[in-house]
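Deliverable D5.2: sample structural annotation.
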Amino acid sequence: MLALWLVHAYVAALAWAGVVALASWPLYRRFSLILPGRTRRWAPEIFILLVTTLFLAPLVYAIAAIGHEAALLAGALSEAQSKGLPPPEWLSRIPFAGKTLLAWWGRVLSTPGGFTEWFRQINQGPVLGWIKLFGFEMVHRSIMFAITLVALYFLYRDGNALSLRILSLVQRVLGQPGKQHASRTVATIRGTVNGLVVVGLAEGLLLGISYAFAGISSPALWGALTGLLSVVPFGMPALYGGVALVLFVQGQTTAALLILVWGTLVMLVSDHIVRPLLIGDSVELPLLWIILGILGGIENFGLLGLFLGPVIMASMVALWHEWTNVRDHSV
């Protein structure tokens, strides 16, 4: 118990490492088998390098794209400071806030020197506090990510021996059914990863293509954000709905409607057909418990709850069926 208390701040990082290791273990085993002779002993190092690249490459691309957009914004603000910028035609068409934003633009951005004067008048204390908090959060997340990678390396390296010890412990605690519960837990995690991550990537790709056809700047970045938010309830419609709203106020009504209809169609098919089938077929879990597990997991454990929620619900349903001798999984 003392050891658990010492590492409690890093339990989330260790849990993430466990989820990734369980989900990617079959792929890692196939990868290690195709390596020639002596190179096979370096399989954990090579595979962890590939996993790190897989995680960091989209992040680096996103940072580069955001940096490019920030440079354009800085240039526009510099021009507004020296010469003033006329308001875009679509600004007044924004629902509810159009007139207010138009007046603010004319006072701050259309008037040379107006932005500097406006910035002096605002309370900069909260802004500096947010920047400092963001910096601390980034450092914390980076440390947790590094711990996750280190733990993941050791799980790949010692996974076989560790799995035997865990299985022995589970059987000692739960008896003979422990092996079935352990197998069901692994199947649940892998099914959840397939249902959330793989479908999320597909959603991001499909919406990214629609963003490109609509002429959205950096469609790959927005597609990646759509795929990332697709694993969060109501995250995906909020993003593509916002994109459609921007296109609508800019006068591109057809493009806005196409993105809205296409995004809704992709979301309905993936969230209500493809994803539940992938998760449910892997864990034999009814759709209601899948939805409750995902929502309850997010509410209680954050993003990690996307995977822990279905695992907990699958274990609960399995124990219920075992204790009541019910084998019909349709209830």
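Annotation notes: The chain has twelve helices and no strands. Residues 9-175 form one domain.
The annotation will be released with the project's public dataset once the embargo ends.
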